[in-house]
């Protein structure tokens, strides 16, 4: 007899309508009996779970494309996204996870070949203000952060966030003492600065002064190991992206920026040292160094050589001679591709030439090219002579500070 009165499963459209009604009811009702409230909450949790199953499928079945399309269309037809977003703090952890999965999936669902989630968010940009500001509430920060990252998959939404006042707030959010929240903020920050390359390049070019001033002072010079580690890694990723080439040249032409990176090379943490190295090599590889940067590299030549003695030089040694005899443009690309081993050799040779240039021309011409190594009188023995000197260098007590005079 029980099977005769089995409840008919709700359609995807009915699931969304039911969710909307339950959320509206819970939002408007201020005084209800505890038992009634618990019943409504349980029904809401069940309905949310059923929506997730429609989108992701279950152990017994795969998701149905038509059902997903119906659910998506109804979800964005009304303000279900807004209702769920504002009601998330009231839901239990299980329901929050289901809602997060639902919203993430809906960002990718197409209706008539269109991403209607993007259009909905473009018409309701204030929702991004709610989501990003969620980092100020420890209880909901991780959930809102995950949804934010899914939303900024859409270029127009990422552009809105980049050009909003939230970007300045990120420098505060990134220093949250809670490790999980700080890591989540970092993930969102990285997504904003790496996913949509053309939009990011435009943002960095337009906002270069204030952005990198904050980036340097708040992140790279932070007292937090986690903050510095993430910041220097992300800086390298951004500067090495070809789309940001003009920003990279501008950044590596600043002595103040190089001073920060050289100090990070002294950090006690090996990871920070390593990531700082990959940014510092851009200053060295820059073919149009300002005179002040050249002077600093020359004045610190011996200290730099002794400092880099700790880096491994064993691999890729067979390519040394080829690299030094290669055309000028290979310096920049080879240090990116082959890493520290080859760059250290380049540093030795480049700093040597800088010193010679300094003594001969008194810095009249501060552009140093690999053509300086292409004299016919040079031979392979000169390269290995420098390597032997390099390998004998040790870090001394006078190498604990750089000279920026």
From TrEMBL:
A Pfam match: Mo25
Transmembrane segments: 330-351
Alphabetized UniProt keyword annotations: Membrane, Transmembrane, Transmembrane helix
GO MF, one annotated term: protein serine/threonine kinase activator activity
Superkingdom of the organism of origin: Eukaryota
Biological process according to GO: intracellular signal transduction
The keyword Manganese appears for this protein: no
InterPro entries recorded: ARM-like (IPR011989), ARM-type_fold (IPR016024), Mo25 (IPR013878)
Keyword Transmembrane helix: yes
Protein family membership: Belongs to the Mo25 family.
Name the record gives this protein: Mo25-like protein
Organism annotation: Dipteronia sinensis
UniProt lineage: Eukaryota, Viridiplantae, Streptophyta, Embryophyta, Tracheophyta
